[in-house]
TrEMBL record:
Residues forming coiled coils: none
Pfam families: Sigma70_r2, Sigma70_r4_2
Record domain RNA polymerase sigma factor 70 region 4 type: where: 124-170
Highest taxon of source: Bacteria
Alphabetical list of PANTHER family matching this protein: RNA POLYMERASE ECF-TYPE SIGMA FACTO, RNA POLYMERASE SIGMA FACTOR SIGV
Keyword list, A-Z: Sigma factor, Transcription, Transcription regulation
Protein name: Sigma-70 family RNA polymerase sigma factor
Residues of the RNA polymerase sigma-70 region domain: 20-84
CDD domains with a match to the protein in the record: Sigma70_r4
Length: 182
């Protein structure tokens, strides 16, 4: 850790940004996708997020990790975008569909598992934003409750409550009911 900090002190802003993009690019894309539910739009937002990161890199105070800082920027940027007039009124929302460009493995158990994961992920995407974001961070990004609370700037008990409500809603939906939008 100390070597990493020391290395970053000698890097230019551009070099730090390239390292952050390589290390966290997929994470930023996944989080953006959970908000906008369209791959191309999520890719565009990811680029904009890294531009914002580049512009703000000099303000990073090392009170948190780059990872947490990037999560916070991503969440705030995506929330602002989803609330924007163009997103709500101009952009047609496509139906979420499994990636057809992925090559299929020959092992049938892996195919079945992937289909089940895609189905569950589609159900997660139908949750309200507040429930969806905690599920994505907890189960897909492997953040702890405290890390999620830091990223979303809420109390850890709020995160626990949202996780509980999300699990309950998903369970209800999987068993044949409707998802509760909260």
């Amino acid at each position: 850790m100390h070597d990493k900090r020391e290395k970053q002190e000698h890097q230019s802003t551009r070099e730090i940004l390239v390292d952050l993009m390589e290390e966290y690019g997929d994470m930023v894309l996944r989080v953006a996708f959970t908000y906008v539910k369209e791959r191309q739009l999520a890719e565009d937002l990811s680029q904009e997020i890294f531009i914002k990161c580049y512009q703000s890199l000099h303000t990073f105070e090392e009170r948190s990790s780059y990872r947490t800082w990037l999560y916070r920027i991503t969440v705030n940027y995506c929330k602002d975008y989803v609330r924007s007039w163009p997103f709500r009124n101009l952009i047609p929302r496509s139906v979420v569909r499994p990636g057809n460009d992925r090559s299929m493995d020959s092992v049938s158990s892996q195919v079945v598992q992937r289909e089940e994961n895609d189905l569950l992920f589609k159900k997660v995407l139908k949750l309200s934003v507040k429930l969806r974001e905690v599920v994505i961070f907890y189960y897909y990004e492997n953040l702890s409750v405290n890390e999620i609370a830091c990223v979303l700037q809420v109390n850890p008990n709020t995160v626990k409550s949202r996780l509980h409500r999300a699990r309950k809603s998903l369970r209800h939906h999987i068993e044949g009911g409707m998802i509760l939008e909260e």
